[in-house]
Amino acid sequence: MTALEAPTTGTAREDVPTGDLAPDLRWWAAANYLTAAQIYLRANPLLREPLRPEQIKPRLLGHWGTSPGLTMLYALLNRLIRRTGQEVLLVTGPGHGGPAVLAGAYLDGTYSEVHPGVSQDLAGLTRLVRQFSTPGGVSSHAGPHIPGGIHEGGELGYALLHAAGAAFDDPDLLVACVVGDGEAETGPLAASWRLPAFLDPRRDGAVLPVLHVNGYKISGPTVLGRSSDEDVCGYLRSQGWDPVVVAGDDPPRVFADLDAALADAYARIRAIQDAARSGRAQDTPRWPAVVLRTPKGWTGPHTVDGVPVEGTFRAHQVPLAGVRENPEHLAQLEAWLRSYRPEDCFDADGRLVPELAALTPRDDLRISASPRAGGPHYRVRPLPLPDLADHALAVPSPGVVQHETTRPLGTYLRDLFVRTARADGGGDFRLFSPDETNSNRLGAVFEVTERVTSLPVLPGDEALGPHGRVMEVLSEHLCEGWLEGYTLTGRHGLFATYEAFAMVSASMVVQHAKWLQQSVLEPGRPPVPSLNVLLTSTTWRNDHNGFSHQGPGLIDTVAPLSPDVTRIWFPPDANTTLVVAEECLRSRNRVNLVVVDKQRHLQFLDLEQARTLVSAGGAVWEWAGTEEPDRARTDSPDVVLAAIGDVPTMEVLAAAQLMREHVPHLRVRVVDVVDLLGLLPPGEHPAAFSPERFADLFTDTADVVVAFHGHPRAIHPLLHGRPDVDRFHVRGFTEHGTTTTPFDMVVLNRMSRYDLVLEALRRSRRVPEGGDGLARLCHEQLGRHREHVVEALEDLPEVRDWTWSSDRS
After folding, report:
1. I need a labelling partner for 304 at 20 to 30 A (CA). Which of 341, 401, 531, 639 fits?
2. Could you tell me the domains of the chain?
């Protein structure tokens, strides 16, 4: 042990009895054996004959370095569960240790229950080791293919976030979360340590972090690995934890010390919860945490070709790489594998011997069978959704009433909080937002709940307390990651954030979509509530903040992801937003992106019209166009104006009104699209418009001028495969913006009503009488706008005060 590894505090003792741990140590040896066997072997899984080169996989893929720590914790959590009956969910941040967690799930028996072909016998063992990191097999990470998991891991840094989300509103659950010291260098994980400020011991479960410090990443040291125990523990204490250190390189001693540390941590957790739930006053609790220092690649090869491996970065992936070609490496591998004495762990039929099988917790208490992570008794309580009619706006005619579009959603969520409340202050629904709930016009929720804090509440604070269900923290990483853990364990929620800053968590959304995409292919993985993301304070109306706050990039990120799990919604008004919200909250196994602004906007549809639009995904607004109603829909218009988004809808309608007034004989069709991915060709997305439906909206021949909320280039790939896509001419956000007026934003990006009219005149099948005059008017108005906005500092009155009129005179 180096000076840095020497424990300064912890549970290490000279008198720890190890006799009763002997069976658990053997179980650990069996798990380590299966872990290494998965990385290397394609046959001869229990070494019943001397190991030969052809029994080694041709490609060696996997990560050994972190695995022994994971299998040790798995073994000792099993022991804790047997002693206490505690329900435990294991989140493994070092997701590269996939073979270790898979070994645990196989030894539990759960993996064979879910995959009967990988049976609890020699044939099943052969399939287990052969399938790992091979074509047609399973991946090397701890992904959805491993029962009992809700987290993939690796270097992404989301483990503690997922653990926290799983613990919220689940008072009976203990989430053990392994944090790798490489993972601990990431931004999301660094912010995650603030969890004690948000965890309520009265109605939440507990999270027990185990910071596994093994010193190295793939080729270099970790920051925490080179930090002293004093510094590491000091940092964790500053974040609200009460850490202990378990350290060493002697397996039985560290095994016993970690067992004692877990037992002590569990006792302290129960004391904290019992005090809170009995109403005894106490200060903000300091939750236990464990810092575990062990060598990287522990119990594996010490040296290879005279070069140190164990305890160095060389143990990160495959410690012995040339075993098929190098007889000395092959012999060293066989000696390493036999050091775990597989003959003492598995019987003649390849089954785990009864003494070790008896160490598995019973039924749902098995880590790999947790009902929270999709186990046999997993359940999701459907949300008791409020009646939309109680929150819908009265819209007697389109384009006249103005209202803040997201404010009715706030009252809807308020009632949802009431309907999902429990007596202990918990529930099945939470709202996550980076200090923006009021800003995003959702503040009605504070009539019935609070922002969560376990820290002191000061005079003058508003809607702040330990038992609320609104999670506000200025970190998109925390909000999004907490929601992931919350939904993956069967609860429902909404992440509401400023559109531009949602990109901070873009990689998390991508990884979650990939998890869902894979989970639907796995037997035993039930559907989970969807990840719902509300993007507001949007590009077009962040004119008061400026260019840095104007960015629709998350749309570009989500659009190419798996069509089986993604939807992108652009409600044009408040009632449509309510209908979309209801659809998203009812859905399962999806990432729903809802893009709508919070400011005052014209309202267009009543509730029933909104329902019709959302159900169809898009509609022709006949009241806004100038087609004759008796003409054939697919061939009648001279040009189509299409809107995708709230501000685009207003500009399209204003353009249509100008054309109605100045070129009334031009046949103009107005289309509004709410479900963006409906544009994809049939077969590319479940929501894709059929060819007939697409033609009903856009025809197969007419030119279409599209006003789009996001980057124009995001539309063209969606349309690929539709008839004559060159006839679609898209205007949208072209990365021009500043602190300016609302209309100046659309002018800067050439998406104004005047720009749309000019484009429509250029693309029309016919050049109508009066077209030249209308074009001159549009150019004049754009010039007037530029002069007026600079001088008056506000938009032209005819733009600022515009409302829809259907008068054709």
Report:
1. 341
2. 3-373 (3.40.50.970), 388-600 (3.40.50.970), 620-800 (3.40.50.920)
